[in-house]
């Protein structure tokens, strides 16, 4: 039984890494987050039977570990001026789509945590509302409210790009 659960958990690692990467911008810190979450999941694997979804349970663990360590362990590293890339003002963007996607990602970073987390779980991870609400520890109505406010804020922050045929926030495999 334990071996079966470990195998099922291992199958979810790519999704856990993608979600951790959306929470923690630094790839190394995101990998640390996944490792810490997997440690906790393996220690508590007996709880899996009580859950309706293994993926939701694992995402909940990643989110909880992130919340517990976001002020110190998973905080973004300090940025120096050497790390800042300033584009040459006369160089046009090579790919408009890339610039639009970067704009949406930047807007996502500017959303309040609750709205961003709701959008990431529903749009990026493709979780149903009830499962995403369980991961975040909120009621379904609260999740829907955060999604609605978050989507509206994204429209405002991106200048309505989504309505003009620009990239929309959707699930990425």
Tell me what you see in this structure.
The protein has 173 residues and is mainly alpha-helical. Helices cover 62% and strands 0% of the residues. It has eight helices and no strands. The chain has helices at 2-11, 13-23, 27-43, 54-69, 96-110, 113-124, 129-136, 140-157. Helix 4 (54-69) packs parallel to helix 7 (129-136). It is globular and about 50 Å long. The mean pLDDT is 81.
Lay out the secondary structure.
Layout: H1 2-11, H2 13-23, H3 27-43, H4 54-69, H5 96-110, H6 113-124, H7 129-136, H8 140-157
**Low-pLDDT segments:** none
Mean pLDDT: 81
How many DSSP helices? 8
What distance lies between the first and last C-alpha atoms, to the nearest angstrom?
29 Å
- Secondary structure tally: strands: 0
Structural class: mainly alpha
* Rough outline: globular
Instruction: Estimate the helix proportion, in percent.
Output: 55-70%
Report Rg.
Answer: 18 Å
Q: Which band does the percent of strand residues land in?
A: under 5%
Largest sheet: none
- Topology pattern, helix = H, strand = E: HHHHHHHH
